[in-house]
Design goal:
- The complex is a heterodimer of chains A (112) and B (244).
- Chain A is globular and about 35 Å long.
- Chain A is 46% helix and 0% strand.
- Chain A has a single domain (24-111), classed as Non-ribosomal Peptide Synthetase Peptidyl Carrier Protein, Chain A (Orthogonal Bundle).
- Chain A has five helices and no strands.
- In chain A, helix 2 crosses helix 3 (66-80) and helix 2 packs across helix 5 (98-108).
- Chain A has 112 residues and is mainly alpha-helical.
- Chain B is α+β, with helices and mostly antiparallel strands and 244 residues long.
- Helix content of chain B is 31%, strand content 23%.
- Chain B is globular, with a radius of gyration of 18 Å.
- Chain B is built from eight helices and eight strands.
- Chain B has an eight-stranded mixed β-sheet with strand order 3-2-4-5-1-6-8-7, with helices on both faces.
- Chain B has one domain: Thiolase/Chalcone synthase (Peroxisomal Thiolase, Chain A, domain 1).
- Classes of the chains: A mainly alpha (112), B alpha+beta (244).
- The interface between A and B is small, with 12 and 11 residues.
C-alpha cells in the first residue's frame, strides 16, 4: 500500500495502474532504522521494508505525529549513542524522510 | 443507599472469553489465571491501537459494545493500581539514568485511559478516573450514582486491573489475574432492561479479613446467581441487595 501511495505522490498515478515506479531500494542502514522506527512506535500494520526512503515520515501516508518524533529521537539516541536534540533548527530537514534521517544517523552515530 | 439498574455488563479475564465462560465460572468458581494474553481490539484502528497499553486494550475491549456510536455517556474508570506496567518500566529507566519514553510518560497517568476512551469513542462529556482501596468498585458505583443523579441517562463504569510485575509481590495481593468488569448503569426507577440493585454502606466493626477475590468479580457472580453480597473493608461495610 505504501509503495503505490508513494508512487502516486511522485505523480505516477495518472499514467497507468501497470506502470507503477517501484520505490528506491532501502540501504542496509535505512532498513535497520526502519526496523527501529516500526518497533519503537509499535507500528503493527507496517512492514519496515515498506517504508519508502523518500516518502515523508510525518504528515504523509505513514501517519506519524509529533509524539512519534520524540519517540524516534529517543530510540535513535539509545541505539546509536548520540543525541537528537528537540531544539535542533535542522530537525525539519533531518526528519523529512527515512533517507534524510538515516543519512544524519550515519554521520553522527557513535563509533562501533 | 443507592438504587440502580445494571442495564448491560461485560467482563474480561485472560482465560474467560465470553458470556458463557463467565456463566460457567459463576456456577462453579474456579481460580482465574494470568496468561499475558490481551484482546485484539480490532475495533480500534491500528494507528490508534498502537498506543494502547495492555490495560487500555482490556478496558476498550470490555466497555466498547456497551456504548453505541451515537451516544454520549459519562465514563467512570476505576483501578486501584492503574498502569503499573508503564510506571514500572519508567522506574527502571530512571534507576538506570536512562531517558524516559514520552509516550510511556504521557499515558501513565491515571486518567489516560479515560482520555483515550474519549478520543476513540468521540465522547465529549464527563469522565472520572478513580483509585481507591479494595472497595474501589463500590466507590466507582457511588460516582456513577452521582452522575445519574445529575441527569445522565446512563453511565459506563469500568473497573480494571492488570497483574503487576513480580517486583510488586508482597505489596499488591488483590489482583489474582488481569481483569475488567464494565457496567452500563442507569436509574432504578425508570423502565429498562437488566437487573436492579441496592447498594448500602454502614460502619464496619468486624475484624474479619476481607475476601481475596476482587469485589467487581464477586459482583459478576452475583449478576448470575442474584445473591446478595457483603463487602467489608476496614471501617466500611458495603451491602449489595438485588431488588425484585
Amino acid at each position: 500500500m505504501l509503495h503505490s501511495a508513494a508512487a502516486a505522490i511522485r505523480g505516477e498515478a495518472g499514467i497507468s495502474g501497470n506502470l507503477e515506479i517501484p520505490m528506491a531500494t532501502q540501504t542496509a542502514a535505512q532498513h535497520e532504522l526502519a526496523e527501529l522506527i516500526v518497533t519503537s512506535l509499535n507500528l503493527e500494520s507496517v512492514q519496515p521494508a515498506e517504508i519508502d526512503p523518500d516518502a515523508p515520515l510525518f504528515g504523509g501516508d505513514l501517519g506519524l505525529d509529533s509524539i512519534d518524533a520524540l519517540e524516534i529521537a529517543l530510540a535513535v539516541s539509545k541505539r546509536y549513542g548520540f543525541q537528537l536534540k528537540s531544539d535542533n533548527p535542522d530537525n525539519r530537514t533531518i526528519f523529512t524522510s527515512l533517507r534524510s534521517l538515516s543519512d544524519h544517523v550515519e554521520q553522527h552515530r557513535a563509533a562501533a | 443507599m443507592i438504587e440502580l439498574r445494571i442495564e448491560r455488563w461485560r467482563a474480561w479475564a485472560p482465560d474467560i472469553q465470553d458470556d458463557a465462560g463467565w456463566a460457567a465460572w459463576a456456577a462453579s468458581p474456579m481460580p482465574l489465571h494470568e496468561n499475558d494474553s490481551q484482546p485484539a481490539c480490532e475495533l480500534v484502528p491500528p494507528m490508534q491501537r498502537r498506543r494502547l497499553s495492555r490495560l487500555a486494550r482490556i478496558v476498550m475491549h470490555t466497555a466498547w459494545p456497551l456504548c453505541d456510536d451515537g451516544e454520549q455517556l459519562p465514563f467512570v474508570f476505576a483501578s486501584r493500581h492503574g498502569e503499573t506496567t508503564r510506571t514500572y518500566a519508567m522506574l527502571d529507566e530512571i534507576g538506570r539514568d536512562a531517558p524516559l519514553s514520552p509516550t510511556q510518560f504521557g499515558l501513565s497517568v491515571h486518567n489516560a485511559i479515560a482520555g483515550q476512551w474519549s478520543i476513540l469513542r468521540g465522547q465529549r462529556g464527563e469522565s472520572v478516573a478513580l483509585a481507591g482501596e479494595a472497595d474501589t468498585f463500590e466507590h466507582a458505583i457511588v460516582e456513577a450514582a452521582t452522575l445519574i443523579g445529575e441527569g445522565a441517562k446512563a453511565v459506563i463504569v469500568v473497573v480494571a486491573e492488570e497483574r503487576p510485575a513480580p517486583a510488586y509481590d508482597g505489596w499488591i495481593d488483590d489482583v489474582p489475574c488481569s481483569y475488567a468488569v464494565a457496567l452500563r448503569v442507569a436509574r432504578a426507577d425508570a423502565p429498562g432492561a437488566g437487573t436492579r440493585w441496592r447498594l448500602s454502606l454502614r460502619g464496619n466493626t468486624d475484624c474479619a479479613a476481607a475476601t481475596g477475590e476482587p469485589h467487581a468479580l464477586r459482583f459478576v457472580r452475583a449478576l448470575h446467581d442474584g445473591a446478595p453480597l457483603d463487602h467489608p473493608w476496614k471501617t466500611r461495610r458495603w451491602t449489595w441487595q438485588p431488588i425484585p
